[in-house]
Design brief:
Blueprint lengths: L3 H5 L15 H30 L8 H17 L3 H11 L7 H27 L1 H17 L1 H11 L4 E6 L3 H10 L5 E6 L2 H7 L7 E5 L7 H10 L6 E5 L4 H10 L3 E4 L4 H9 L3
Parallel strand pairs: 1-2, 1-3, 3-4, 4-5
Helix pairs in contact: 2-3, 2-5, 3-4, 5-11
Length: about 280
């Protein structure tokens, strides 16, 4: 069963005042709704993308697009992702009056947000046991020497953190660097797993951001090699795919979190700040 505390930490789910009072049976029913959402989303996402991509000369079938988006909004409402659903319903009524580029931009942003929600729910489920163990160990250490931790935090608050970003494509790396300008992060951009492993012979970064789909050595393989080197820094995967198989495979490889493409600056900074 998914931990209630972890679900409450997902900001897109409006669960405060609802989930705390659920009994075990109600919680199981809610979890089934979450699982159905996770399993159905990739197919619904492809259907919406196909609607956008079809009939480029004749224009978008707005009725079909509106129906698909409305169905997804109903599902989001059932799992209490109320704000995302409400915002989407507002835009549905404006689809026909908006230009094609505006429609594509909004739908892309919407699907990215829903994909990130799907991944966050999956991470709450698959990392439950692992994170509980880590938190227990961390809590013990903090209790034993709380004053030392506070001192260390104060000393490291302004220390620049090193993030190694690996992607065979230049554009996502450029977006990453631009999005994090002015923040206390030193971004090391590399184009392959091989380059990353060479870099790691002499450096120990504070975080990794890895693209999943790369030639010769994909993100999963690189993550496994990073862990084999004994490096425990958080690994965040870049992905455009929210399927359960991908998430579970990433967790097994050592993933801490995900960032969904196209990269959104606000979400990127929020994810990184959770760990650094």
């Amino acid at each position: 069963m998914i931990d209630k505390k972890r679900l409450l930490a997902i900001s897109e789910l409006i669960l405060a005042g609802k989930i705390e009072d659920m009994n075990d049976e109600q919680m199981r029913e809610y979890e089934q709704l979450l699982i159905a959402f996770i399993e159905d989303f990739p197919g619904e996402e492809e259907k919406i993308k196909a609607t956008l991509g079809e009939n480029l000369n004749n224009g978008i079938d707005y009725n079909e697009l509106a129906n698909s988006l409305t169905a997804m909004c109903k599902t989001l409402g059932k799992i209490h992702a109320d704000d995302i659903a409400r915002e989407c319903l507002k835009h549905i009524g404006q689809l026909k009056s908006a230009g094609r580029e505006q429609v594509e931009a909004y739908v892309t942003s919407f699907l990215s947000s829903v994909a990130m929600l799907s991944i966050d729910i999956q991470m709450a489920k698959y990392l439950k046991t692992k994170r509980d163990a880590e938190e227990k160990k961390s809590d013990t250490a903090e209790t034993a020497d709380l004053s030392a931790d506070k001192t260390a935090d104060a000393q490291s608050a302004n220390v620049e953190k090193t993030i190694v970003a690996v992607d065979d494509a230049t554009f996502p790396l450029t977006v990453l660097k631009k999005s994090l300008q002015g923040l206390p992060y030193d971004i090391i951009c590399l184009n392959s797993g091989r380059e990353a492993l060479l870099y790691l012979k002499q450096h120990q970064p504070d975080m990794f951001i890895l693209d999943i789909e790369m030639p010769k050595m994909d993100g999963y393989e690189l993550a496994e090699k990073i862990r084999e080197l004994g490096l425990g820094a958080p690994i965040i995967f870049l992905t455009g795919n929210a399927t359960r198989r991908n998430v579970m495979k990433a967790v097994e490889a050592g993933a801490s979190d995900f960032i969904v493409k196209p990269i959104d600056k606000e979400k990127l900074v929020s994810k990184i700040s959770k760990y650094l």
